[in-house]
Amino acid sequence: MLNDTTIISKSIPEASDDNVRVAAIQMASGPSVSANLKEAARLIETAVSQQARLIVLPEYFCIMGEKDTDKLAVKEQPGEGVIQSFLSETSKRFGIWLVGGSVPLASPDPNKVFNSCLVYDDCGRQVARYDKIHLFGLALGNEQFAEERTIKAGDKVVALESPFGRIGLSICYDLRFPELYRMMGSVDIILAPAAFTAITGKAHWEVLARARAIENLAYVIAPAQGGYHINGRVTNGHSMIVDPWGVVMDRLPRGPGAVVAALNPEYQASLRKSLPALDHRCLYDCRNSDR
Which of 23, 67, 198, 203 could bridge to 52 as Cys pair (CB 3.0-4.6 Å)? Predict the structure, then answer.
């Protein structure tokens, strides 16, 4: 059973008159953490040069090992380690909000890690952590995946307040479970860092990202792994930013780079006023109800 939604609040500076620019970073990560962090730093700097203030890295940005178990060897304790230090120092150095799409953090089971999305503010402080709830499993031709073998599932839904609006956190396979996003309440931005496979990504990635944007009238920032990996895996790419009407504002089909777009809170508010679908909900989960 999932615990109650975790809501993380902090003081928010006065909003600027300018629409905030955000970025989704696309990578084709390999087994070397240091090489991946160097590449992430390069791509973050590219996004910063385009005035991005909220930058989101993809799932497994820090390691795509030759074997699924490779991430166990580089797992970190919460608040410690080179990966978390990189995220903290980089966010502080550039004065940005930075999201590590997923970081392998130690779990009570020594043979598994939490696949954790970590959010850092512009002072380098970690302000949110979300442990991936839905673990990917696929048996389709040559594509065989079972994340449950090396990952321990999280049990908390996480949303946080930010200078850019209320943000809901998710990772990759979570996109297939719309009830997760309903449990967040009303969010302005959904983060969905991912490493979709080439097969499932081609069929479902865009439609899922756009569906989550449309049904929540929210911006979706969806950075992805995109390319060929040393372990033989091919990831879908097509990192994108989707607006609350379901329009893809920008995308990158394949290869490393930064997708950048401006969020417009006034436009979002006007859509929610014109189409108040979030207020029209009348079916709720009654499993715990006496009725």
Answer: 23
Which single residue is written with the structure tokens 């020594």? 110
Which residues, 6+ apart, have CB-to-CB distance to 182 below 8 Å?
Answer: none
Reply yes or no on whether 76 is catalytic: no
- In CATH, what number is assigned to the domain containing residue 241? 3.60.110.10
Phi-psi region of 217 (alpha: psi -120 to 50; beta: other; left: phi over 0): left
Please tell me the pTM assigned to this model. 0.92
Is 80 a catalytic site residue? no
Residue 5 lies in a domain: no
Q: Which of 71, 147, 152, 172 is catalytic?
A: 172
The parent domain of residue 120 ranges over 19-277
